[in-house]
Amino acid sequence: MTMDFGFSSDQETFRASVREFARSTLAPHDAEDDVNGAMRPEMPRQMANIGLTGLRIPDKYGGQGAGALEVGIAAEEVARADLNACYLIVNSTLVSEIMLGAADADQCRRWLPSIADGSTIPALVLTEPEHGSDAASLTVKAEPDAGGWRLTGEKTSITMGMYADVGVVLARTGNAGPSGVSAFIVDLDDGHITRSVFDDLGNRPIGRASIYFDGMPVPRDGLLGAEGSGFTSAMRGFDYSRAVMALACLGTAAAALDDAIGYARIRTAFGAPIGTNEGVAFPLVECATRLRAARLLCYEALWRKDQGMPHTVEANMVKWLAPKLAVEIVHQSLLTFGHTGYSSDNPQGRRLRDVIGLEIGDGTAQITKLVVARNLLGRAAAP
């Protein structure tokens, strides 16, 4: 048995191309996008031009048909330059993953090519004001209507909610519990919806929003899969998207740590570089060690996904670990800069505000630990 911790030559080439794209195209606008609190209109097409919005979409629908490892590589490298741009990768891969598992051929032909080419921004429309972590109890209704359904109720904390053209909407079509939840693919350019943006601490360009459905009509061919299968479809997508988001956090943390290490080499105090002081150097060593360990666990989860192996435990482990670790690393990196790190001219503060958001979004630490606990202990012996 062999154990290989490296990437293939094709994957390394891909990594280098994404890193250069992120450095040259995304990084110069990161600070401005944060101040403006808006996503630049050209960004989806720019990312689509190098295949980042169609990574998991098969080539017959205009995508790359890439593996989960490649998605992780892309998220990590993009996040080194701009964490918020990663949400375009995550949304497109998560929505396409759900569709490929539940949609029929006609639905795939209608929606996936435009997601792949960046002309359509997708969103997963799941969370509700009273039902975030307890998603199986959602109350937005899909009521039967002539020729289909009508959606009524409010969704909230929708990533890319202000920009999304299409959404996979989870709504109740049956009795209480997960078996009464169905998934619908809907055009969000409709007069029956109202959007309201959040004024957030971080992740300001991603347009996190509430969406209210006022009897929005959905045709019969908008149902994804069978009635009552929506919750299962969404949770299956989270099994690997959580590892992708973890790598995005670690990419941001790695960029922050690189800056701090570089500063510790050149900043002098008392006649020597500050890195010669154990109080500066050792915290950076600890950050580098923990970052490397978490990164390996992320890629193990994605490798297992590509091998068709169970990966729920690994993906949920890193979803609680990586955002927490990223916050700690960025914080320590900011402190390494001293008073200059506290200035808005330094990217550390912006990075810190952004990674904090992923301690909440896409599964809180409590929920992901619960998933792991039930796998380790069994449901009867777990919380």
From TrEMBL:
Give the protein's cofactors. FAD
Its keywords, alphabetically, are: FAD, Flavoprotein, Oxidoreductase
Q: What sequence ranges are listed for the domain Acyl-CoA dehydrogenase/oxidase N-terminal?
A: 9-118
The Acyl-CoA oxidase/dehydrogenase middle domain, residue ranges: 123-215
Provide the Acyl-CoA dehydrogenase/oxidase C-terminal domain boundaries.
228-377
Q: Which InterPro entries match?
A: Acyl-CoA_Oxase/DH_mid-dom, Acyl-CoA_Oxase/DH_mid-dom_sf, AcylCo_DH-like_C, AcylCo_DH/oxidase_C, AcylCoA_DH/ox_N, AcylCoA_DH/ox_N_sf, AcylCoA_DH/oxidase_NM_dom_sf
Instruction: Give GO MF terms, alphabetically.
Output: acyl-CoA dehydrogenase activity; flavin adenine dinucleotide binding
Q: Which EC number(s) are documented for this chain?
A: 1.3.99.-
Superkingdom classification of source = Bacteria
Family membership: Belongs to the acyl-CoA dehydrogenase family.
| Name the record gives this protein | Cyclohexanecarboxyl-CoA dehydrogenase
